[in-house]
Design a protein that fits this description.
three-stranded parallel β-sheet, 113 residues, TIM Barrel
Length: 113
């Protein structure tokens, strides 16, 4: 697809491509062909944090798909600190690992356990 120049944009999803490390290999491959990255993410805060960490390393990243903070309490509440959008931009969390911690009590409550 890249060599044939069939697309100007790739949408890797950390859940479907094998994790954030595999996502970070797709970015440079796309960059070599002047193809942008619009990371796909239709999951919760853990996937969002992993995707943000991956695209933070990609100079060809153009956008990050994610649920809007505040759109669904079950999506925001388990992440500490919560992922937020400031002036239309979201930053990769700066803590250790993925940059967030999971509030397991909140996750269980939201899941109905």
């Amino acid at each position: 697809m890249l060599e044939a120049r069939l697309t100007p944009l790739l949408q890797p999803d950390v859940i479907h491509v094998g994790g954030s490390a595999e996502s970070r290999t797709i970015g440079p491959m796309a960059e070599a062909y002047s193809v942008g990255i619009a990371a796909h993410n239709a999951a919760g805060p853990i996937s969002t944090a992993a995707t943000l960490q991956a695209v933070a390393c990609m100079p060809n990243a153009q956008m990050q798909e994610m649920f809007a903070p505040g759109g669904a309490p079950w999506n925001d509440a388990p992440a500490l600190p919560p992922i937020s959008i400031v002036e239309g931009k979201v930053r990769a969390p700066s803590g250790a690992g993925l940059g967030i911690e999971l509030d397991e009590a909140v996750a269980h409550a939201e899941a109905g356990y």
